[in-house]
């Protein structure tokens, strides 16, 4: 396969999207496992 600058730009774009979505998933997973300090929130 001939590596063109368009192919490189596409691979870099896909890699950045995967890294961003992985960071979002990691943040949500980490945040969901935190223990709450106040188990009885005020109404």
Give a short summary of the structure.
With 43 residues, the protein is an all-alpha fold. It is built from one helix and no strands.
Can you characterise this structure?
- The protein is mainly alpha-helical and 43 residues long.
- It contains one helix and no strands.
- It has one helix at residues 5-32.
- The longest helix has 28 residues, at 5-32.
- The mean pLDDT is 86.
Q: Secondary-structure map with pairings?
A:
Elements: H1 5-32
Write a concise keyword list for the protein shown above.
43 residues; mainly alpha; 1 helix
End-to-end distance, in Å? 63 Å
Number of helical elements: 1
**Sequence of secondary-structure elements:** H
Radius of gyration (Å): 20 Å
Provide the β-strand percentage band. Answer: under 5%
Flag low-confidence runs.
Answer: none
Strand count: 0
Helix content: 55-70%
Class computed from helices, strands and strand pairing: mainly alpha
Mean pLDDT: 86
Q: Give the biggest sheet.
A: none
């Amino acid at each position: 396969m001939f590596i063109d600058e368009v192919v490189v730009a596409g691979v870099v774009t896909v890699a950045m999207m995967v890294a961003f979505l992985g960071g979002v998933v990691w943040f949500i997973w980490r945040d969901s496992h935190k223990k709450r300090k106040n188990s009885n929130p005020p109404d």
